[in-house]
Amino acid sequence: MLVSYKWLKEYVDLDGVSAAELAEKITKSGIEVEGVETLNEGIRGVVVGHVLSCEQHPNADKLNKCLVDTGEADPVQIICGAPNVAAGQKVAVAKTGAVLPGNFKIKKAKLRGEESNGMICSLQELGIEGKLVAKEFSEGIYVFPNAAEVGTDALELLNRDDQILELGLTPNRADCLSMLGVAYEVGAILGKEVKLPETNTAPENEKASDYIKVSVAAKEDNPLYVAKVIKNVKIGPSPQWMQSRLMGAGIRPHNNIVDITNYILLEYGQPLHAFDYDRLGSREILVRRAADGEEIVTLDDTKRILSTDHLVITNGTEPVALAGVMGGANSEVNSQTENVLLESAYFTGPAIRKASKDHGLRSEASTRYEKGVDPARVRAAAERAAELMAAYAQGEVLAGSVEADSLEITPVIVSVTLEKVNRVLGTDLSEEVVADIFSRLKFDVLTDNGTFTVTVPTRRGDITIEEDLIEEVARLYGYDLLPKTLPIGTSTQGGLTDYQKKRRTVRQFLEGAGLMQAITYSLTSAEKAAQYALDKREPITLAMPMSEERSVLRLSIVPQLLDALKYNQARQNDNLALYETGAVFLKTGSSELPEEREHLAAAITGLWENHPWQGAKEPVDFYVVKGILEGLFTQLGIEEMVSFKQGAVEGMHPGRTALLSIAGKQVGFVGQVHPTVQKSLDLKETYVFELSLKAILSVEIPALRYKTIPRYPSITRDIALVVGAETPAGDLQDIIIEAGGSLLTDVNLFDLYEGEHMEAGKKSLAFSLKYLNPEKTLTDEDVMKAHDKVLTALKEKANAVLRG
């Protein structure tokens, strides 16, 4: 909310309180003032000038030579390129020596051989945003009304000698979305009275009820509708002071009728709408829900398809406005309008919010309706607007209003005790101090033996419970005056849990290994949701997604990491190693919250090592990624508990994928992305892994046990086994370990051979076996017994034979 300091002074006495001081007081009372802007800061030397004559520049087609009276002894010649400059106009003139925004200094100059002593200014050149300038002046200079006095300060006439306070309002403080609401707040802070506008319109003899009939079919959405009729208006520009106030509040002036409705919206916080009475097409207003597929062309010349969720204002048959959001083009006030139907209504927030969201229309009116307007101001705002239309559009206000009223206003009454106020705030306030705060807020209050019974005004819809009253006392008494106390009781030293420490270890290890952390969206598309999921379940769909690409909660992190690789490779970042720790979301039941499981995932592509000086380039492969995981498991102390077995995962290369298990339970996978998937994403050879982080970090690690250095030598035996090409090396290693007994201390695969001199469908795997007895020196006989058991087991269980 943008609040004009000068305008605010019309309602509250601010003598002795500067804009900066007021901003500090408002902020201390609980509403943040995000900034104070001085509109004429750095600008000087701009006055009202009178263009005495205007003729074309003798040496330039698009320039004009103007003789301008600036209130000094002699007129000055100014060269102006604005297309709308003309003799007889009152304009803003930056005299020689003036300074404009951006520290732009005006000097004497010669333009195409003609002397120019100043500058005739547009509003944009005086620091006003182009989008706020009325259309008639958007492409040229600004022209003052004829009543403007030559030589006076142009910035003062334009209200640029004002300061604007920008309030950062929270959703519950909709009462401050109006100048009167801010005035009540400032009056309470300063202990000053609030002066409300007075309406004294003398109505015509004709009655509004003779011209219009109002009915409401959707009473739950629109319990109060007020219509007034103003005849014989003269459409023209609104007065200078009103245009300036609208521009200061961020609203572009249009014409006197539209500007008055916007002015009342800012003053009262009550949205109004003006219809061209003669273009309505009937003498009836019917408020109802739209029919499915019904159409309306709104003021922005856009055709909108309506549904039964949308509330519309109709002429009895067809829509003439999308209620509370935007009017229709078919009943718009224009330069030909003579008679106006003025609408002031109380629409409920949900109905307006739905229409605003569905059509992407966020207006000043819809913002206020969504947060809630004061039902007590609906009629007062209409009367005030009608009075201004009579004053500034020469309109004739017909007697009375036509209403459809089913609104029941039940006063909110909240009680709180002085004892609770002091107990919650830690204060020792007296009954008189608390009662005075409620009085300053203009709350009706009855005090009875330490109990305050407060009748809350309708403008303060945020006050509903006793805690709200306590907050009002706290903020107006002063948060900085509340006593400071230390908590009493036992305390515990903070620290990371065991799980958090391990998770930090995981991140530190991966970053030390060369991976970079990524943070991706938890929302994805229905197509990607189940890809690479460790636990295949139906994904959870959002009730109101922002887009199809972000419509469901993810079941796997890998698809998002692959998207990140694709994004980076499209920008020539080819060598990438990303990891992420984050939640996946599993459906548990129709009425239960989803289960969140923390996963660890990574995606690596390109060169793993690249040393230009040494000429060494090593692309990432399966064993690089497997090695990273093995190093991580060693760091966590669970390397002996995790097993890798070849397996199949949808979307992964069938021959380069391994499943990871702990105690026979699968906890993740690692491998190469399937070539077809890589191609569809324009990725080079890419490897990924995804693990259940909770399963990994929850493993109970056995206590660390040290062994003495062996006193006796070990004996190594190497064997080359011929097996079927499909036999996994891991299976052979498991057989060897199981059959080797206590003497076998280490097994390593060190060679794989396929090709020439090898039978078709066969391969050779070479293992190195280490035997050791920590109690004595091994004999060949001891080793042979153990080794023969290994060979026999390999023959029987895997049909493996020694390679000759």
Provide a brief overview of the structure:
By secondary structure, the chain is α+β, with helices and mostly antiparallel strands. The protein has 20 helices and 42 strands.
* Percent strand: 25-35%
Architecture (CATH level 2) name of the largest domain:
2-Layer Sandwich
Helix content: 25-40%
Note the main sheet: 7 strands, antiparallel
Q: What is the β-strand count?
A: 42
Instruction: Spell out the CATH superfamily of the largest domain.
Output: Bira Bifunctional Protein, Domain 2
Task: Briefly note the structural class of the backbone.
Answer: alpha+beta
General shape: elongated
Discrete helix count: 20
Question: What's the Cα radius of gyration?
Answer: 40 Å
CATH domain topology of the largest domain:
BirA Bifunctional Protein, domain 2
| Count of spatially separate domains | 6
Question: Main attributes?
Answer:
alpha+beta; 20 helices; Phenylalanyl-tRNA Synthetase, Chain B, domain 1; OB fold (Dihydrolipoamide Acetyltransferase, E2P); 804 residues; elongated; 7-stranded mixed beta sheet; 6 domains; Phenylalanyl-tRNA Synthetase, Chain B, domain 3; 7-stranded antiparallel beta sheet
Description:
This protein has six domains: 66 residues, 2-Layer Sandwich (Phenylalanyl-tRNA Synthetase, Chain B, domain 1), CATH 3.30.56; 114 residues, Nucleic acid-binding proteins (OB fold (Dihydrolipoamide Acetyltransferase, E2P)); 198 residues, Phenylalanyl-tRNA Synthetase, Chain B, domain 3 (3-Layer(bba) Sandwich), CATH 3.50.40; 69 residues, Phenylalanyl-tRNA Synthetase, Chain B, domain 1 (2-Layer Sandwich); 200 residues, Bira Bifunctional Protein, Domain 2 (BirA Bifunctional Protein, domain 2, 2-Layer Sandwich); 88 residues, Alpha-Beta Plaits, CATH 3.30.70. 25% of the residues lie in helices and 29% in strands. It is built from 20 helices and 42 strands. The strands form eleven sheets. Strands 3, 4, 5, 6, 7, 10 and 11 form a seven-stranded antiparallel β-sheet that branches. The mean pLDDT is 92.
